[in-house]
Amino acid sequence: MLNFNYSIPTKIFFGNGQIKVLGKEIKKYGTKVLLVYGGESIKKNGVYDEVIDQLKGEDIPFWELNGVKPNPRIDSVREGIKICRENKIDFLLPVGGGSIIDCAKTIGAGYYYDGDPWDLVIGKGKIEKVLPIGTVSTIAATGSEMDNYAVISNLETNQKLGLFHDNMFPKFSILDPVYTFTVSQRQTAAGTADIMSHIFEVYFSRTEGAYLQDRMAEAILKTCIKYGIVAVKEPKNYEARANLMWSSSLAINGLLSYGKESMWSVHPIQHELSAYYDITHGIGLAILTPYWMEYVLNDETVDKFAEYGINVWDIDKENDKYGIARGAIEKTREYFISLGLPSTLREVGIGEENLENMAKKATDYQGGTIGSFVPLNYEDTLEIYRRAL
Amino acid sequence: MLNFNYSIPTKIFFGNGQIKVLGKEIKKYGTKVLLVYGGESIKKNGVYDEVIDQLKGEDIPFWELNGVKPNPRIDSVREGIKICRENKIDFLLPVGGGSIIDCAKTIGAGYYYDGDPWDLVIGKGKIEKVLPIGTVSTIAATGSEMDNYAVISNLETNQKLGLFHDNMFPKFSILDPVYTFTVSQRQTAAGTADIMSHIFEVYFSRTEGAYLQDRMAEAILKTCIKYGIVAVKEPKNYEARANLMWSSSLAINGLLSYGKESMWSVHPIQHELSAYYDITHGIGLAILTPYWMEYVLNDETVDKFAEYGINVWDIDKENDKYGIARGAIEKTREYFISLGLPSTLREVGIGEENLENMAKKATDYQGGTIGSFVPLNYEDTLEIYRRAL
Question: What CDD domains does the database record attribute to this sequence (chains A, B) (predicted)?
Fold first, then answer.
């Protein structure tokens, strides 16, 4: 186990009806609110009204930034900063999924930055302070409600990049599983794949002796596998939605990665798909993950994949280890298919046209090599894209 | 899964050499330090010198309260408060195990209370504020380094009781597994039993659908079972000490109990053993736990015990569920014995003399009924003590 510094300051209000704390919690940190959201979904499912009731009930003035898209654009960030500065807004309230929360986090960082906020995304500028943020999460997926990361896209430059800062942890997040009842089958499936991918990124690591972290990772993977399919089939199953929602936060808040070396692999490869084709993040991950697993399976990694097969998929440990490893990868693929997710790039309209450009960008952004479990160069990355066609 | 409000604000600096952050961390919260510790052990193993080096290196003035005993006495708390008030001390630095940390937490609460600090323990007085606390942990056991609880004893009244407050969370804790290399075999075993008992207290619950929490509980139990015996046999095994140390914090910081109904059972029964006989907390737990499990095994609880047997002890799920349950309880007992721990009260010098008084006190403190997995009244508690003789 490696040394680590643990700090997860976000408070979580979990469960049905927790929206009632919203107004009072906001007042601990701010006086004027920017409500950040996407399209019509939170108006249709009633979440918008519940939030507005809370704000009005506590006499908290608020402004709105709506129309924030999945794979949130830097344009929305710029617009949000403008509204905040014009109105001296001192608290950000994203209501939605990871894209909405990521947009708000970047608005919060950009608010205190003199130049264009894209500088902060590409590392040209430095984050010093961040406006306080509270979130109302409406999907189990990115875990952005309990971490200090954000991912922002720039469609002009075909770039999708991450930024982080300790002050980007939300002060609090309200997680009401009922708010996810109206998430579509496809988005539920994609969200489950996203959570599982966050776990894979840190589970498949070369760090020795982080036994506790690995067993906890398996615990959350088993939870996703059990309840992802339930939530797809029974969208109003509270138990399934609750287990997925809490899994999404714990998968990425650091609990599983503290003490392990884990340079991510599949996310950087996937990000190019979203940057070039604007496809749903979790769908790209579901397609790529089994191909990545097959590609990196070798004599040095087979034990880890066998561990995965035995502990997560309950494959008989008496089998030979390559058999267990391949069985586990196949079960992973079959599971994503059972959720209704595509398993090839062609199914989502991606052909050979950009594979080389994407492989080049993906590796360039990582300084030439992606990941550390099995470091991947340009050729490796291109080959994974090709196999996934 | 039940609703919950999650807040675990303690920062953790985990790993060998992390003591180097001590001085700078203290300066974020205070200017004058009360160093709280027990006997000679931290002087023998070098931890005391490392702490002093840090304080001196940052020119932080400090006072000392030493001689704090296991099952810390209210007398030590009174003494600590006196030193703090006389010297306007504004930061508490317990260096040691749970008893030392619990003593410091109670000093921190008592500092701001006008009356006798025992009032706060018995609920006669109310905790309003707490001095900031940072800990240097030297044993994997109570988890006090990352929670907001303390347990204090009063040998005059034969009382051992808990108190808690949100401000009793340490601001930070330094967990260096090397500091636990010199913990004796017996204390290592008792600490492991204590961690496992904290998990049992929340794992064995009637809450339905907290699947994620239960799988994580099993993950930490498996870690304890794997490494407890290793640490007993190879006290300088870093991997074992690290896994146990991090398990101790995660077992009780709320991660496993948020979302579950869990009134503790074995701890209240054990506390009377320590109050009457001053025996090591973890040893009392190791003795009582299997007897408690056998006593509460019935048609309503057998499924949970079978789940425990299958998922933690790898018992074949094809067996009948009572067979699995009884097998799991027997494995629990055998495991504690394998660690070198006693399995009966007589082995630690406890006879029939106080059983009735202890059963009465244990149940009285809990309002007549202990626990909620299977609520235990006076007769139940007395019977468990008797069987454990």
Answer: BDH
Put simply, the answer to whether B259 touches A246 (Cβ < 8 Å) is: yes
Does residue B274 surpass a pLDDT of 90? no
**DSSP secondary structure, B267-287, as one string:** HHHHHHHHHHH---HHHHHHH
Does pLDDT of B361 surpass 90?
A: yes
Chain A nearest CA to B280, separation (Å) = 26
Domain boundary among A137, A153, A179: A179
Identify the residue among A174, A244, A246, A247 best suited for mutation to test binding to B, counting B beta carbons within 10 A and taking the highest: A246
Instruction: Kindly report, residue by residue over A46-68, the tens digit of the pLDDT.
Output: 999 999 999 999 999 999 999 99
Contacts of B9 in chain A (CB under 8 A): 9
CATH number, residue A296: 1.20.1090.10
Is pLDDT of B96 > 90? Answer: yes
Q: What is the mean pLDDT of chain B?
A: 96
Asked casually if ipTM beats, i.e. exceeds, 0.90, the reply is yes
- Residue A161 has a pLDDT of 86
Please give the helix or strand (H or E) that residue B173 lies within, else none.
strand B172-175
Overall domain count for chain B: 2
- pLDDT exceeds cutoff 90 at A83: yes
DSSP state, A37?
Answer: -
Domain contains A40: yes
- Number of Cβ pairs closer than 8 Å across A and B? 113
- Distance to chain B for A95, nearest Cα, Å: 19
Q: Which residues of B touch A246 (CB under 8 A)?
A: 1, 212, 259
* Domain end among B122, B150, B179: B179
| Mean pLDDT of the residues in chain A | 96
Query: Nearest CA to CA, how far is A226 from chain B (Å)?
Result: 9
Q: A256: which 2 tokens?
A: 């599983």
Please state, in angstroms and rounded to a whole number, the distance separating the CA atoms of residues A224 and A52: 32
Q: In the numeric block, which tokens belong to residue A271?
A: 């990000």
pLDDT tens across B104-146, in order?
999 999 999 999 999 999 999 999 999 999 999 999 999 999 9
Alpha helices for B168-237 (secondary structure H): 185-203, 211-233
